[in-house]
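tool=predict chain=A
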Amino acid sequence: MAPNPQEEFSKAIDRIHNEAKPVIDFSGTSSRREATLDEARQELAQSISRITHSLFSKKYGPLVGTVTESTVVAVLKDVENNVYRAKGDVTLVVQELLDRAMGSRKTT
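tool=predict ok
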């Protein structure tokens, strides 16, 4: 006996209606605490390390992932420090330019 397509369709629709609805919360509040910068840096380094290990471990050996993880953490810390310094430098330059622009308007 061949299955009735209409009956199968009806069963599928019933299954869809009986499933729990997904919870979509756009309120902006999160039940999960926000990760610190150190935790986020470490998680990114671990992810890059896993990818590197899966791609290059056969060619360069099993320690390539571990070496990559420590290198990524060090590079991210250096980038962080450089961005912080650059932010201070840019702030000083913008302040100086604004002071000069405002000063030239007052004299004319």
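The first helix runs from residue 5 to 18. The CA atoms of residues 50 and 65 lie 6 Å apart.
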